[in-house]
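FAQ

Q: What does a record look like?
A: Structure on top, sequence underneath. For example:
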């Protein structure tokens, strides 16, 4: 197939592009390099462009004769979205609208969308199915939910347009060959921040809240290895290529680890007993967020291969050391 991948130079998108290349697909990456890197594009051709640039988007899509579009490009920092909501609605929603319009004009009928568990907000039960209600509590989650609503309405109106929306839980880890990985200096995610603390790039790790109603008082999340997430996309693409209809899937393993468990595992894997400080809760953190991923397993035949926190952290650790070395002594 010929596939346009937006955000294909970023963390998750670049792993997708590498896998599509291995599978023999022809890839064009569309990325403005705002947080991605040219070196991370391991397959296909890179078009440096912005999704706000409608003429360019239209030209690329119309000339490309694409079988499918995979849309990864987005802003992802939750607290930034609270401070700068319009930036999130502009990039995550309005630019997705530009993309879907351009797909419509170019006759692209298959679309895969990177959604998020943040659409569920603070679910009461902790474990969520795809039928749990949209209840985002920040502009990031809301902007993604808006795109899902748009895709649902558009696919109802245009019967041969089909999409798969994948709601990611906590994606972590890196390529086993250590070619690519999380490469943002301003990373906020627990595993990356812990590894950078183990490397001495940060002085200490803050644990945001120890008074949650969980066994050890810290938040529980469903950490999924990036390669398993990528295989979910491969299944989704096969589903659409086989003429499948529009679907929504949770992407997680169905069980979780607390912040303290993750930190203990990072210390074990790295062999570094880095400083940890227990601080106040971070605004907007649900106590427990776990995927019910039975739909992904039963309908798309997805079977995770790396449901192992130690493996996730080991791959992230190998990558982090390489990445930090590439940046030089003081950089993060
Ligand atoms: N945490 C810390 N210290 C840190 C960083 C994180 O204690 O330095 C805690 C958080 O408070 C949270 C857990 O570790 O309890 C995980 O936090 P992350 O920032 O790694 O991830 P989130 O669960 O907040 O966010 C993830 C995705 C978002 C998505 C969200 C859905 O990264 O894109 O899940 O709720 F929106």
């Amino acid at each position: 197939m010929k596939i346009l991948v937006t955000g294909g130079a970023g963390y998750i998108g670049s792993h997708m592009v590498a896998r599509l290349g291995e599978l023999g697909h022809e890839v064009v990456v569309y990325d403005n390099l705002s947080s991605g890197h040219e070196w991370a594009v391991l397959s296909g051709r890179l078009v440096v462009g912005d999704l706000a640039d409608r003429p360019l988007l239209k030209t690329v899509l119309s000339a490309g004769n694409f079988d499918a579009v995979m849309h990864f490009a987005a802003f992802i920092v939750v607290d930034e979205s609270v401070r700068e909501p319009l930036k999130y609605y502009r990039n995550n929603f309005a630019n997705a609208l530009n993309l879907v319009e351009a797909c419509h004009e170019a006759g692209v009928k298959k679309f895969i969308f990177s959604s998020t568990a943040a659409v569920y907000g603070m679910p009461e039960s902790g474990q969520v199915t795809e039928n749990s209600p949209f209840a985002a509590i920040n502009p990031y989650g809301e902007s993604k939910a808006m795109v899902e609503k748009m895709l649902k309405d558009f696919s109802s109106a245009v019967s041969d347009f089909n999409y798969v929306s994948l709601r990611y839980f906590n994606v972590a880890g890196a390529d086993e060959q250590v070619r690519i990985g999380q490469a943002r200096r301003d990373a906020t995610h627990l595993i990356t921040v812990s590894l950078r603390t183990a490397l001495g790039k940060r002085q200490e790790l803050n644990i945001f809240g120890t008074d949650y109603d969980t066994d050890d008082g810290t938040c529980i999340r469903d950490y999924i290895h990036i390669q398993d997430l990528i295989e979910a996309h491969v299944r989704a693409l096969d589903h659409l290529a086989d003429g499948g209809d529009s679907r929504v899937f949770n992407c997680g393993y169905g069980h979780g680890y607390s912040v303290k468990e993750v930190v203990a595992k990072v210390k074990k894997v790295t062999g570094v007993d880095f400083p940890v400080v227990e601080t106040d809760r971070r605004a907007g953190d649900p106590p427990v967020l776990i995927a019910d991923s039975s739909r992904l397993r039963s309908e798309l035949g997805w079977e995770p291969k790396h449901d192992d926190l130690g493996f996730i952290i080991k791959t992230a650790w190998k990558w982090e050391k390489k990445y930090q070395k590439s940046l030089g002594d003081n950089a993060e």
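Q: Is there anything notable about this one?
A: The radius of gyration is 19 Å.
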